[in-house]
Write a structure and sequence with these properties.
single chain, 106 residues, little secondary structure, extended
């Protein structure tokens, strides 16, 4: 079938021109396997409102071909991609017999 639901605001210009708010419950965005969830716009901000371990988690857990990629294609300064912990550390782990590679080029 070819069902499509579209929510469009043609005149709103503010940061909250379209808002999806759950004041007491959660919000779940779930696409079918093999389909994308595409979020794009100006600056993308992902913030947690909770004080707990894994407050923000980026996880994939479906098969052995999975990868997670963070790419900056246009940034040229030293901070083009930054991992910052203002009061704690940063831990990087890889599986046994796998490499953790840090360097200037591929």
């Amino acid at each position: 079938t070819s069902e499509t639901i579209v929510v469009t605001n043609t005149l709103g210009e503010g940061e909250g021109a379209i808002a999806l708010t759950a004041t007491a419950g959660g919000v779940d965005i779930d696409a079918a396997a093999g389909k994308d969830v595409n979020i794009s716009g100006g600056q993308l901000t992902l913030s947690s409102k909770t004080n707990e371990a894994s407050a923000i988690s980026l996880t994939t857990n479906v098969g052995t071909s999975e990868t997670i990629v963070v790419t900056n294609t246009k940034g040229t300064n030293n901070g083009a991609i930054a991992l910052t912990s203002t009061v704690g550390g940063i831990t990087m782990k890889v599986a046994d017999e796998k490499d953790l590679t840090l360097g200037n080029q591929w």
